[in-house]
């Protein structure tokens, strides 16, 4: 868990931890909204996020759909290659519900960790211990000891969301918006392109690295499912969605000492 309050980024303006923590509610409310609209199924999100009062733009829901589906597909491919003899460490997990969705499909890895600020983690634990009655049940033995043998020494790291193409005008507007909320993107200078994202992994000891912008991710999802979600809400400004998605990417890196074929994992 990270512990600090308000810090000054040596490279930029003041960063407020509270503003960073508030992105947890932004994410979970957007997910809850999209789930309610039928973009994907998640019976657990209702425990962790209230249904937002205001309507969310379809661009937001489609963007989250691509992110949730993309990450879930990569995680499942990793679990399959390792035969679940692995561990997942979810950094900045917020109110993410992937743990329960994997559990429902009997796909849990040997160990599953979530890391976030103490206040966020405490809130999540409280919700798990005292779930709202009448909602889809949350598993009580949610952090059971591993059923699988010792984790194999193979790794995959995934980073959904670090931004790319931040040096263009659209990227600058996104940075300004976040900074006005005291939410600096520390390290954004390194997020120039998909190639710099891959190089960051390779220069830090990873053997294989991939990066796809969210337009590519969206286009790699099953066409019948994309058709289904595109029929849910009318989207006027397709260009805006593309612009947004060109500034986010899904990147993942692998080390595969046991030659399990992790390098082949792709969407
Ligand atoms: C945009 S939210 C995403 C939450 C979740 N992964 C999801 O997709 O719903 C980012 C999360 O990262 C957490 N976070 C950001 N910086 C952090 C840090 N330095 N230490 C711990 N958690 C951090 C925030 O508190 C927040 O819950």
TrEMBL record:
Molecular function as annotated in GO: protein C-terminal leucine carboxyl O-methyltransferase activity
EC numbers for this chain: 2.1.1.233
Positions bound to S-adenosyl-L-methionine: 67, 92
Name of the featured protein: Leucine carboxyl methyltransferase 1
GO cellular component, one term: cytosol
One BP annotation, GO: methylation
Annotated source species: Anolis carolinensis (Green anole)
Function field: Methylates the carboxyl group of the C-terminal leucine residue of protein phosphatase 2A catalytic subunits to form alpha-leucine ester residues.
Annotated segments matching region Disordered: 142-163
Family to which this protein belongs: Belongs to the methyltransferase superfamily. LCMT family.
Classification via Pfam families: LCM
Keywords tagged on the record: Methyltransferase, S-adenosyl-L-methionine, Transferase
Reactions listed under catalytic activity: [phosphatase 2A protein]-C-terminal L-leucine + S-adenosyl-L-methionine = [phosphatase 2A protein]-C-terminal L-leucine methyl ester + S-adenosyl-L-homocysteine
């Amino acid at each position: 868990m990270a512990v600090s309050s308000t810090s000054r980024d040596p490279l930029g303006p003041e960063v407020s931890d509270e503003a960073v923590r508030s992105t947890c509610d932004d994410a979970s409310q957007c997910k809850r909204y999209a789930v309610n609209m039928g973009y994907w199924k998640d019976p657990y999100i209702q425990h962790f996020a209230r249904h937002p009062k205001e309507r969310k733009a379809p661009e937001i829901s489609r963007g989250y759909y691509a992110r949730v589906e993309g990450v879930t597909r990569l995680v499942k491919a990793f679990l399959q290659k390792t035969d679940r003899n692995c561990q997942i460490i979810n950094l900045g997990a917020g109110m993410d519900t992937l743990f329960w969705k994997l559990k429902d499909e009997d796909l849990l890895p040997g160990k599953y960790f979530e890391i976030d600020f103490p206040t966020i983690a405490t809130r999540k634990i409280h919700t798990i211990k005292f779930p709202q009655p009448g909602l889809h049940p949350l598993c009580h033995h949610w952090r059971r000891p591993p059923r699988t043998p010792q984790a194999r020494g193979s790794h995959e790291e995934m980073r959904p969301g670090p931004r790319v193409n931040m040096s263009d005008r659209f990227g600058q507007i996104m940075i300004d918006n976040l900074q006005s909320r005291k939410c600096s993107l520390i390290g954004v200078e390194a997020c120039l392109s998909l190639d710099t994202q891959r190089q960051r992994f390779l220069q830090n000891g990873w053997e294989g690295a991939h990066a796809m912008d969210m337009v590519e991710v969206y286009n790699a999802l099953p066409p019948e499912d994309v058709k289904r979600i595109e029929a849910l809400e009318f989207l006027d400004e397709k260009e805006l969605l593309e612009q947004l998605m060109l500034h986010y990417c899904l990147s993942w890196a692998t080390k595969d000492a046991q030659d399990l074929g992790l390098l082949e994992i792709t969407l």
